[in-house]
Amino acid sequence: MVKSISINVLILCGLVFSCGNGYGQKTVSITIDDVPNTRIYSANNCHSKLLSVLDSLHIPVAIFINEGLLKKYEADCDNQALLTQWISHKHVTAGNHTCNHSRYSEVGLDAFTFDIIQGAQRSNTIADSLGKELRHFRFPYNDLGADSLAHVQIDSVLTSLGYRISPFTIESSDWMFNAVYEYYLQFNDTIKAAEIGRMYVDITLQYFHFYDSLSQQVYQRPVKHIYLCHDNRLNSDYMPMLVDKLKAESYAFISYDDALTDPIYLQQANYFKKWGISWFYRWMDDPSMRRAWMEAEPETVEIEQLFEALDK
Ligand SMILES: [Zn+2]
């Protein structure tokens, strides 16, 4: 009996959680949405600082492209060349993030399907010429639909188009920090901007610690994390600090495809609302457990208040 239980546990470990070799190390795949940021490309003399920074850091990243951004500021720079630089980079895995960043639960199935198809027209041509392929799709706002029917319908569309839905385990609202960061830079308040930059790095590390503790409690091991952030000025300036601090905490930076080999990503979702929550929560089948973990997330009230004050 004891032998049969221990074998069953070993099989469970091997098939479901793959504990043991390969899962003791803390790992993360960095993923960047809303590429390419043609606004800061234009403002920066047709140069993407984030791409240069990532090149110098020698870490693999996955990017999720909004082709609609190519039509903005196109008189200033060659935006197609920027997209080609991103897709052709040896450390980049490219994915689709729609053309116009529409919200699926608002526009409905047909319009959203059209936005997906439009989202990869130029990217597919560039990727083809480089022997690459766009196989991954990330939803704008991580809005997978308002109910279970909508989730199932779009899943079927994406499968028929050859895409896999792109999950994430960690995000830290970098877009909100970026809005406040750019606000201070606009008024040349570099001291306040730097405070926001450091706060972003500190809170992001707190999110890593938080989701590591969740991972340990739920899966009894470190999972292969996927971190979601954006092509923005904040990451152009603070990604090196964030990467340094994660390295100091023994995180290894892995490719997106490597991250997806973690069997956690084979789990079924149990969450069918439109909100863009971490996949850790989507996999939980107990709503009260989900709520309890969400309420225990790191404190972000300071940046939220600063962000809300921008509108006033
Ligand atoms: Zn986006």
Residue stretches low in confidence (pLDDT < 50, at least 5 long) are: 1-21
Percentage of residues in strands = 5-15%
**Continuous helix count:** 14
Number of E-type strands: 8
* CATH homologous superfamily placement of the domain at 27-175 and 222-276: Glycoside hydrolase/deacetylase
What name does CATH use for the topology of the domain at 27-175 and 222-276? Answer: TIM Barrel
Distance between the termini: 67 Å
Q: List the ligand species.
A: zinc ion
CATH class of the domain at 27-175 and 222-276: Alpha Beta
Helix content: 40-55%
> What is the general shape?
globular
Short description:
This protein has 312 residues and is an alpha/beta fold. It has helices at residues 2-17, 38-43, 49-57, 79-88, 104-118, 121-129, 148-160, 174-186, 190-219, 233-248, 256-259, 279-283, 287-295, 301-310; strands at residues 26-35, 61-65, 92-96, 136-137, 164-165, 170-171, 224-230, 251-253. The strands form two sheets. Strands 1, 2, 3, 6, 7 and 8 form a six-stranded parallel sheet that branches. A two-stranded parallel sheet has the order 4-5.
SSE diagram, text form:
Layout: H1 2-17, E1 26-35, H2 38-43, H3 49-57, E2 61-65, H4 79-88, E3 92-96, H5 104-118, H6 121-129, E4 136-137, H7 148-160, E5 164-165, E6 170-171, H8 174-186, H9 190-219, E7 224-230, H10 233-248, E8 251-253, H11 256-259, H12 279-283, H13 287-295, H14 301-310
Parallel strand pairs: 1-2, 1-7, 1-8, 2-3, 4-5, 6-7
Helix pairs in contact: 3-10, 4-6, 5-7, 8-9, 8-14, 9-10
Zinc ion (ZN) binds at residues 33-34, 97, 101, 140.
